[in-house]
Design goal:
Length: 433
């Protein structure tokens, strides 16, 4: 028979060696681990404090801040501080240096430098920096000019004050699409630089790398400057160029510079097959004196609107009664707006000088005929009729033929549909009452 044995667990007594060993182990372990834990916590806290204390400051983009302060707000003095820092930090020195010259210029032109006692410093800094200005800085200034800002005039002045040294960049910019919107300002800056740049302009005209349109612009500019130094160079170019349009532009400039023997060649160009030659010839008539009016009348019939425009502008300077009919045909015909506006102005001058007998009646009949489809054209005719000289003609004519005014009123009530035209016509009729 098997015996069942029951095992009863033995619980150590308080004075048991087992408990004593456990207690000693626990205490020793705690004593050993506590300094380690304390060290770890202290190290973490110290590291956190260190990280918080050493948090890096946000980096300032001095070029961006200085540019905004200068171009957007005109704060020259504040901008200079940032731009000087940018000059040190930036790898590309052209932007900060160009902006610094502009900032000193703006500070002087607005008298901010004077009011803050900085005038002498600004003048010195500007002079030194202007002298050191290179092609990259000048091109950067042109880029600023393209975007338009409150410092437009000051930026142009910096380029002009740089003088002849700025011309290569300006001439090159004339032929670039990026600076197309700045074309007029570039020409004006070159004009202000003046006769000192005539030699460089002549060199550019002769260069095969210069686009034809830039060559023509430079030839015109030499004529506008009006100094005789460029005569020999221009005549030499004229005798060697194979471009008929350029040659005619040189003829025109030579005439403006006193070489009146070129007048015949200029007028003969009105009959040329090359449209550029005809344009140059017609444009030259604005400056010619005493040309045969038949030449201008023929030019008014040209198929090219620019030729027509120039011919109408020429007749503003030399009114002739024979031109009234052809000018009216331009005004009521199919030419572009520039030509029609030039014709309208020429007719106004003819009327004021009493060289346009019957013009008012002619224009009214054209208006009420219903053949002028463009509302803009009808409005232009009415605006011309409201000029003092034409109003006088209408009043005199109405005394003899009241039907003229009646027809205008009837046209207003029954035919005209465009509100702006109707408003202009009402004002005309009210002025006649």
């Amino acid at each position: 028979m098997k015996k069942h044995v029951t095992i009863v667990p033995i619980t150590p007594q308080a004075d048991s060696p087992i408990l004593d060993g456990a207690r000693n182990l626990s205490v020793d372990s705690t004593k050993k681990s506590f300094p380690s834990l304390t060290t770890t916590l202290c190290s973490g806290l110290a590291l956190l404090i260190l990280l918080i204390g050493c948090e890096p400051k946000q980096q300032i983009d001095h070029l961006k801040v200085g540019r905004q302060q200068l171009l957007n707000s005109g704060l020259a003095v504040d901008a200079i501080k940032h731009l000087k820092e940018a000059e040190i930090e930036e790898l590309d020195k052209a932007p900060p240096r160009a902006l610094l010259v502009l900032a000193y210029t703006h500070g002087l032109s607005t008298e901010v430098a004077k009011t803050q006692g900085l005038e002498s410093e600004f003048k010195t800094e500007r002079a030194q920096r202007l002298a050191a200005l290179g092609n990259e800085e000048i091109e950067y200034l042109l880029q600023i000019l393209v975007r338009r800002s409150r410092l437009q005039k000051d930026a142009m002045q910096v380029v002009v004050d740089k003088g002849v040294d700025a011309l290569p960049v300006l001439i090159n910019a004339l032929g670039q699409a990026d600076f197309l919107s700045l074309h007029g300002d570039i020409v004006e800056m070159m004009y202000q630089i003046g006769s000192d740049g005539l030699g460089l302009m002549a060199d550019a005209i002769q260069s095969a790398d210069t686009p034809t349109e830039v060559q023509i612009e430079l030839v015109r500019l030499i004529g506008r400057i009006g100094e005789p130094q460029g005569l020999e160079d221009l005549e030499a170019i004229r005798n060697t160029t194979e471009d008929a349009g350029l040659k005619m532009e040189i003829n025109v400039t030579l005439y403006r510079l006193g070489k009146h023997e070129y007048a015949t060649a200029i007028l003969n160009g009105l009959a040329a097959d090359d449209v550029n030659v005809r344009r140059s010839s017609a444009r030259a008539m604005i400056h010619l004196g005493g040309y045969p009016v038949s030449k201008a009348l023929k030019a008014l019939q040209d198929t090219d609107d620019q030729v027509v425009t120039y011919a109408a502008q020429a007749l503003q300077n030399q009114p002739d009664a024979q031109a009234v009919g052809p000018l009216t045909d331009v005004l009521t015909g199919t030419a572009d707006n520039a030509a029609k506006q030039a014709a309208s102005e020429a007719l106004r001058i003819h009327a004021e000088q009493k060289r346009a007998k019957g013009l008012a009646a002619l224009l009214i009949k054209a208006l009420i005929s219903g053949k002028i489809e463009s509302a803009e054209d009808r409005l232009r005719i009415l605006q011309l009729l409201r000029k003092e000289a034409l109003m006088g003609q209408i009043k005199v004519t109405a005394l003899v033929d009241p039907q003229l005014v009646y027809d205008l009123d009837k046209y207003l009530r029954q035919t005209e549909t465009h509100e702006m035209v109707k408003g202009e016509l009402r004002r005309l009729l009210e002025a006649l009452e």
